[in-house]
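Q: Structure tokens for this one, please.
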Amino acid sequence: MNNKCDLTIVPPTFNEKDNIKPLLDMIGRAMKNKKIDYEVLFVDDSSDETPEVIEKEIKNRKNIQVRMIHRPKKRRTGLATAFIEGFEKARGEYICCIDSDLQHPPQIIPKLFEKALGDQAEIVFGTRYVKGGSAEGLGSLKTFYGVYRRAVSLGVKYFTQILFIPARQTSDPLGGLFLLKKSILKGVKLSPVGFKISVEVLMRTKHNKVSEVPYAFLARENDDSKATMKQGLEFFKHMWLIFTTIPEAGRFLKFCIVGGSGVFVNLGVLYGLVEFYEMNENFAWAIAVILSIFSNYLLNSLFTYSDKKSETRNESMRRIFIYYIISFLTMILNFLVYRLIINFGLHYIFGAFVGILAATILNFVLVTELVWRLKINVNNQK
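A: Here is the predicted structure, written as tokens:
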């Protein structure tokens, strides 16, 4: 048997004994007459007769290369990790991820492969949310259950796309039916939680092009939905893991969170100095701004731009120096807006808030472009 092939189809299985033969039959029909050298690699976590059914199919199928990884209990850690094991053992240049519950139509597999070759795309998504696609398998819009499932699906889709810019490269980042070029996984450590591997691949791999192919998401046939509240919680845990471990994930949101903490520092110090120490409003404002700038710099270094750490002390000092020059410029803008609001007779806290808002926009642009994009090659300095 060849060690290499064009395509590995990976369907994870969990107690899917009734779906194995129909799935392989449909894959065989879909790939018939296609000049694609492919294999099917089951990654099985079942506690029923599913592995025995797969073993039987491995022996009986002469026209399809079928393999199985049956994971012991200690390695049964979810759908996403099952895909990762499939990625590691796949012989194909391309890997197609597909569910084994028959909701992902195997007929789409050669279309994904041909799209990847035609577009020279490293990732191709099957999508339910463009013309030609359908999400009917989530349930009828005439039933409460169907409306609920579709609302949840769209809600988490838009949540993911708002939070992570790379997720906007496809209209269906969480659908689970996609094809990728195995080479983009080289040197990448995937750390999924739960069952959404597709967004993990989008966020952690380096790729040049993402394409998509519409498909109709089908109704589940031989078993019930395995979606649970626990899986929903795991989804948000996964999103949080991506947000906190991939520096560029949601960088603007991280900057805003840091800026929000600076607002509390600024307004808290200002209010305390004016109300409790009866300090002059202008002097109190200056102290509040200086302290909030300092806290923002530290938090941005640790959180927002954690992937752009200074390599030398000289680089750190230069960054701090440039950061404070930028902060001085934005502080002037902040103060001008602050005084303008007060001169209109409005409350000084409101003036401080509007000044912070205006200064933050300018600060983000300048800091991103001039401080954490700055690279100082000290070795070349003489």
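A few notes: Residues 137 and 219 are 4 Å apart (CA to CA). The longest strand covers residues 38-44.
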